[in-house]
Each structure stands twice: as structure tokens, then as C-alpha cells.
Write a structure and sequence with these properties.
The complex is a heterodimer of chains A (260) and B (313).
Chain A lengths: L5 E10 L2 E11 L4 E5 L6 H7 L10 E9 L2 E2 L7 H7 E4 L10 H11 L6 H11 L3 H4 L12 H14 L4 E5 L7 H14 L4 E5 L3 H7 L2 E9 L6 E10 H6 L4 H7 L5
Parallel strand pairs in A: 2-10, 3-8, 3-9, 6-7, 7-8
Antiparallel strand pairs in A: 1-2, 1-4, 4-5, 9-10
Helix pairs in contact in A: 3-4, 3-6, 4-6, 6-7
Chain B lengths: L13 H10 L12 H36 L5 H5 L14 H33 L3 H15 L2 H16 L3 H25 L3 H9 L4 H30 L2 H6 L18 H9 L4 H32 L4
Helix pairs in contact in B: 2-12, 4-5, 4-7, 4-9, 4-11, 5-7, 6-7, 7-9, 8-9, 9-12, 11-12
The chains are: A alpha/beta (260), B mainly alpha (313).
């Protein structure tokens, strides 16, 4: 019954011929929060950007292996990245609202995909789900850029869920926010988890421990001769397991704060 | 004010610290006065910049002043609505022939050059990037910006005027060729400034490339593009040399696009200014004032329009 949303099999990424991520294999389950942790430069962002083909936009990026979304390879022949991205939303590290009104930001996705229903209702519902409605309901026509950083990030989440995706990818969604705004985003993730599968990249281990059900620990491998570096998946499992009884020495060192 | 700061002990509150510094002789790190040398350098730099701004404004203000002073006497309802008399000696009449010619030719040139130029810039920035065609467009735009406008007039003369005769379309063609590279280069610079983050946001929402360009990139760059277009229009409205070779000039009002020479404000100003007759020169001054006001009003209107369309904070 509980089929994985994503089955990633031996996924590797190269940028202009340089290996960036090597042989990642893991399953992402529905209605769970999967955290991806690891030191800087270990390929966390590269990994998450494979899941909605955002890496296609990086010149010279090449992906090998498989990323099966409900059994269908999103890198398969004939798969349009635009279709993939409509099913798999993304929230970025820095809040990036369009220089448009709050309403137009949320309505952007539905409009481009030819939404035919009640747009006002959809905008309200999305903002409510992102816990932003009460703060902005009287200024929907005002510029989104006038909001605070934390509000902008929740607006970006509202914008992502307005297209009614299946999965939401979050690339360090709270790293540019203050602690109070961070807590709000984390609370929001717990709410969203009821309807969506969430993959979050974070360099904040406490955050991963607080919010996630599963944790993937990525780490950098170095070739001593060429000093080339690439990321590998060291360990993947239940978050409680990863943080209390990791089976790999490197995971234990990292989660206990001995390096990284 | 700060609510979190009061969490510390009472001895650490800013108030008590300041009192201690005032009463005690201990030298506070922050009470030291700025070095006189640094203050002096700061003031000198500020003064130098102010002087540079003032100096740059002098010619602009003088131009406005002289044109207003010399032109205002001849400016009248008659001047705005009547064509030129057939003799430069005779007083009265106006430049309505030139006004209509300028509106027609600049209008057509803008309608052709702006869409073409903006599309070319979108191609260069979003599609061609480092490709051969994009490099070619960039290179030729640069070259074209530097070509003296009289050469553009000569080109249109040999290509179109020789077979088809003088006319508004030929003038418009010359003006469009002059406007095109300005629109391409200024639009390109503005499109490059659109942050990759908001483009990524659009792609991540499942927007195709053309949707991203139309709904995100162009609206974000619109105020800047408008400025570039305005520069191009202002430049075209003031061009004289290429119009001598393509529109030729005329003393009568015409709205024909082809087969008949047509006047333009700069042409009428040029003709009037080089005559030895006071009446002709006076009309030239008034024509200069008219052109100046038109460009000014048009610039203001377009500014307002573009600031309305991009939402305010």
C-alpha cells in the first residue's frame, strides 16, 4: 500500500564533467518529511534539484541513474521537465517572491497552467494553508516585496502549493530567517505533511531532528591525488535512528558536532 | 525598542554604562573624536561631487533657458496650428507641417524598432546567450550605435529613395535603423539585471520558458526597458541629417506616407535657423521650444506609465 513517492536509484550528477554527487540510492515515502543533511558542498542542493529537474537549467549539468516518481523515471525519454515541476514544487533558500502583488504571486502557478476555477478561492486557500492569510488578507494587492523575510518565505510556500503539487522540495527554507520565523516555517511543515511529501535540505541538524521522519546524511569524499570532491550518501534511515544510534562512524561524528 | 536587551543584568544596561563614561576619566573607545584629516577629506569629496553635478547641469539649464527665452515670443496658437509661410521673410504661420511629419515618422519608427529591438534583446539574453547569432547581434548593435546618422540617411537614400522617391516611410525607415541598436542594447542590459532567483521560481512552478519570459522577465525589466525606449525616441525625434536625405522637408502639410516629401520639426528648425531672415529664425526658436516640450512631456508620461505598471512597495 505504502508505495514510495520517489525511488532514487544510483543517481549521479556531473557539472561540466566534474562529479558532484555519486551513486545516491534512497526511497522517499508519501506524507513524510525527509531531511537531507551534511556539511557544505556535499551535494545536498544538487541532490534535491535533481528531483524536479531544476538541474536542467544549469549549463553543463548531467544526471545519470534513475529518479523514479511513482515508478516513472523523471529523466526518461519523452518526459517534459515542465510537467515534472508542476507535480513537484520547490521552495528556495532565499525567499524569492516575484515583484508583483501578493495575490499575483500566489495566482502565478495556476494562471500559467490554465487554471479554470475560482482563482480568488484558490489564492485564499493556499495562503491559509501557508499560515499567511490572516496577515495579508487586507493587502492582497500590495507588493509582495513589502513583506518581511519570514512572510515572503511563507508566501513562496503558498505559491508552491497553489499549483497543488504532490511533493514539495525545500532547499534550506529557513536558513535566511530569524528563529521566530524559522519556528513558524517548521510548524507549517508539520501541517503540510498531512497532505504532501516534503524533502528538506538543511545544514541545521537540530532542525532536521525536530521536523523530519527520515534523514539522509550526505558527506564529501575527496580524491587525494586530484583533490576532486564529490558527495555520497553515507546513511539513510529513521531520523531517531540517525541521531541516536547511527551505524556509520562519519554520521556519528557529524551529528555529535565533531566536524562539519 | 529593544526588549531582548533588557534580559541581562542591571549593571549592563546602556544607561549605567554611559553614566560611568561621563563621570569617570577613563577614555571611552567611542568618545574619541574623528580625526580632523578624515573629516576634511570627507567634506572635500562631498564638495567636489556637488560641484561636478552643478557643472554638468549648467549646459542643460542654459539650453532650456535660451530656448525658452528666444522661443516663447513666437510661440502661439497660430504657431502650433498653421503651416510655414512660403517665404522665410514673412512673419506668422507655424510648424504644424513639421509637427505632423515628426509625429508620423517617429511613430512609425517606434512601432517598428521597439518590438523588433525588444525581441532581439530577449533572444540575445534568454535564448542565444553565447551563441554565434547572439554574438553577431551584439556586435552589430554596438557598431550601429556608433555609425553617424547621416550614413543611415545615405543608406536609406540609395536603397529606397532612389527607386521610390522622398517620403514619410523613407524617413521612418532611417529613424527606425537609428533607434534599433539603442533599444537592443538598453533592453539587453535591463534583461541581464533580472535576478536568476525569480526566473528559477517561475521554472519551479512549472512555467515554460516563454511563459517565464513574458510573465516574469519582461515585466520585471519594464521600467528599465521604458527608459531605453525613451532615449531612442528622443534621439529619433531630434535627428536631422538622415531626414534631409529621406524626408527632404516640405512647407505644406501632408499625411501621405510615400511619394511626397514631408517635413519634420528638426528639418523646419534647421531650414529656419540657417536663413538670414529674422522671421525664419524666430520660427526656428519656437520650433526648438516645441520639440523640447514634446520630448519632455512624452518622457514624463512614459515614466508615469511604467512606474504605475510596476507595483509600488
Amino acid at each position: 500500500m505504502n508505495e514510495p513517492v520517489f525511488s532514487v536509484r544510483d543517481l549521479s550528477v556531473t557539472y561540466g564533467g566534474n562529479l558532484a554527487l555519486k551513486g545516491v540510492t534512497l526511497d522517499i515515502m508519501p506524507r513524510e518529511i525527509t531531511a537531507v543533511i551534511g556539511p557544505s558542498g556535499c551535494g545536498k542542493s544538487t541532490f534535491i534539484r535533481c528531483l524536479n529537474r531544476m538541474n536542467d537549467l544549469v549549463p553543463g549539468a548531467e544526471v545519470s541513474g534513475q529518479a523514479l516518481y511513482h515508478g516513472e523515471d523523471i529523466y526518461g525519454a519523452g518526459v517534459d521537465p515542465v510537467t515534472v515541476r508542476r507535480r513537484i514544487g520547490m521552495v528556495f533558500q532565499r525567499p524569492n517572491p516575484f515583484p508583483k502583488s501578493i495575490y499575483d504571486n500566489v495566482a502565478f502557478g495556476p494562471r500559467i497552467s490554465g487554471f479554470k476555477g475560482d482563482l480568488d478561492e484558490l489564492v485564499e486557500r493556499s495562503l491559509q494553508r501557508a499560515a499567511l492569510w490572516d496577515e495579508v488578507k487586507n493587502k492582497l494587492r500590495k507588493s509582495a516585496l513589502a513583506l518581511s523575510g519570514g512572510q515572503q518565505q511563507r508566501l513562496c510556500i503558498a505559491r508552491a502549493i497553489a499549483v497543488e503539487p504532490d511533493v514539495i522540495l525545500m532547499d534550506e527554507p529557513a536558513s535566511a530567517l530569524d528563529p521566530i520565523a524559522t519556528v513558524r516555517i517548521e510548524d507549517l511543515m508539520q501541517e503540510l505533511k498531512k497532505e504532501y511529501s516534503i524533502v528538506i535540505v538543511t545544514h541545521n541538524m537540530q532542525q532536521a531532528a525536530r521536523v523530519s521522519d527520515k534523514t539522509a546524511f550526505l558527506y564529501t569524499e575527496v580524491n587525494e591525488e586530484t583533490s576532486a570532491r564529490w558527495g555520497i550518501l553515507v546513511e539513510f534511515g529513521e531520523t531517531g535512528h540517525i541521531f541516536t544510534r547511527p551505524s556509520d562512524k562519519r554520521t556519528e561524528d557529524y551529528v555529535s558536532g565533531r566536524f562539519g | 525598542m529593544s526588549t531582548s536587551g533588557s534580559a541581562g543584568g542591571a549593571a549592563n544596561t546602556p544607561g549605567s554604562g554611559r553614566r560611568a563614561a561621563k563621570s569617570g576619566d577613563a577614555v571611552g573607545l567611542l568618545s574619541e573624536r574623528p580625526a580632523p584629516r578624515r573629516l576634511w577629506a570627507d567634506r572635500m569629496a562631498t564638495a567636489a561631487m556637488l560641484a561636478a553635478v552643478a557643472l554638468a547641469l549648467v549646459p542643460v539649464i542654459l539650453i532650456f533657458y535660451y530656448i525658452a527665452r528666444e522661443g516663447i515670443g513666437t510661440m502661439s496658437w497660430e504657431f502650433l496650428t498653421q503651416p510655414q509661410p512660403y517665404s522665410f521673410r514673412r512673419e506668422g504661420g507655424g510648424f504644424v507641417n513639421g509637427l505632423i511629419g515628426t509625429l508620423i515618422m517617429v511613430g512609425i519608427a517606434t512601432a517598428v524598432a521597439v518590438p523588433l529591438g525588444v525581441l532581439a534583446a530577449v533572444y540575445v539574453v534568454e535564448y542565444g546567450k553565447k551563441g554565434v547569432l547572439a554574438q553577431l547581434i551584439r556586435f552589430f548593435s554596438d557598431v550601429m550605435t556608433g555609425v553617424p546618422s547621416v550614413f543611415v540617411g545615405l543608406f536609406v537614400y540609395t536603397a529606397f529613395v532612389v527607386p521610390f522617391g522622398f517620403g514619410a516611410l523613407m524617413g521612418a525607415a532611417a529613424l527606425a535603423v537609428i533607434m534599433l541598436p539603442i533599444v537592443v542594447r538598453s533592453t539587453e542590459e535591463m534583461l541581464k539585471l533580472v535576478p536568476a532567483e525569480i526566473k528559477n521560481a517561475s521554472y519551479a512552478l512549472g512555467a515554460a520558458k516563454w511563459q517565464t519570459v513574458i510573465r516574469v522577465v519582461l515585466p520585471s525589466a519594464l521600467p528599465g526597458i521604458t527608459t531605453g525606449v525613451l532615449l531612442a525616441v528622443a534621439r529619433a525625434a531630434g535627428e536631422t541629417a538622415p531626414l534631409i536625405l529621406t524626408a527632404l522637408g516640405s512647407l505644406t502639410v501632408t499625411t501621405k506616407l510615400i511619394g511626397e516629401p514631408i517635413s519634420a520639426l528638426p528639418l523646419a528648425i534647421f531650414d529656419g535657423a540657417r536663413t538670414p531672415f529674422a522671421a525664419g529664425q524666430a520660427r526656428a526658436w519656437a520650433g526648438a521650444l516645441e520639440l523640447l516640450v514634446i520630448v519632455l512631456v512624452f518622457t514624463l508620461l512614459a515614466r508615469v506609465a511604467s512606474s504605475r505598471s510596476s507595483i509600488s512597495r
